[in-house]
Amino acid sequence: MLSRIGVHTSVDVLFPPSVLRDALSDVEPTVEIVETAADLDECDALVTFSYDESFLDADLDWIHSIQSGVDRFPFDRLERRGIALTSSTGIHGDSVGETVVGYMLQFARRLHVHRDNERRREWQFPPWDAPFTLPGESLCVVGLGTLGQGIARRADALGVDVVGVKRTPTPVEHISRVYTPGELQEAIADVRFVAVAVPLTDRTEGSIGADEFGVMREDAYLLNVSRGGVVDDSALLDALRDDELAGAALDVFETEPLPDRSEFWERENVIVTPHAAAANREYYRRVGALVRENVRRLDANETLANHVV
């Protein structure tokens, strides 16, 4: 039985800690906002955005990450200390899916260019052969978990032919063909859009690089809503400079926040968003629902939802 759940102040990157605390006011354990290592002393569970070494020294039984990605947590050390780790995977399919479709619509309808022209008060009709519409275009979604399926569902509804890449080539709704990771280059070679939606692991780190950009169409766009380390940013810039790609929409980067000096800021054919594809005013409610369910499971001695280690 849990007695005290801490809501770490680091969650304020995505929402105020107080709204999650209040959303969990009906659970049996006491829920309080915590900030310092000393605040953790009486906690046996913690909901957090960041990871800190002090978490290992506290007497915690369970840590819940409010993000889907948990690559910053030391799995082996948590397991040795007997601390369970759960993630918020599965709650972002709609928000990330809509973000990616937004990227596609911006590129197709040149909305990003019109917005830039608006700031300069420039009235410019686009080149006759630049705008296009999405029906009949093609998309490869790399990674067909919750995020990838959310992207595929929305793109399919707009008339886009969607293929995908995942480890087991079993059929997936809204995907016309499923490739394995070993067939990645074949999968992305003849599509207009490539959306990357895989978690960052040893297997996926740097998996989208110069070789992959080399096989993509020159009129193709890369859309990255996974983690920054999955895409080789230097190789992507080289491909953009050499006109090997038409453009890129990037929500994540190898270095975050994106440095002021980054060339990505300067390129008209690049859309930059601040790791915000999952942003949603309902975010805290969805995290709260996961936490509440896992409190119930712990009380019932059941397997935790979204259990990582």
UniProtKB/TrEMBL annotation:
Oxidoreductase: is it a keyword of this entry?
A: yes
Which Pfam families does the annotation name?
2-Hacid_dh, 2-Hacid_dh_C
The secretion signal range is: none
In terms of InterPro entries, this protein maps to: D-isomer_2_OHA_DH_cat_dom, D-isomer_DH_CS, D-isomer_DH_NAD-bd, Dhydh_Halo, NAD(P)-bd_dom_sf
Identify the residues that the record assigns to the D-isomer specific 2-hydroxyacid dehydrogenase NAD-binding domain, covering every copy: 101-277
Domain D-isomer specific 2-hydroxyacid dehydrogenase catalytic, residue spans: 34-308
Gene Ontology MF terms in the entry: NAD binding; oxidoreductase activity, acting on the CH-OH group of donors, NAD or NADP as acceptor
Q: Which domain of life is it from?
A: Archaea
Q: Which residues form a coiled coil?
A: none
State the UniProt keywords alphabetically.
NAD, Oxidoreductase
Similarity field: Belongs to the D-isomer specific 2-hydroxyacid dehydrogenase family.
* Protein name in UniProt: D-2-hydroxyacid dehydrogenase
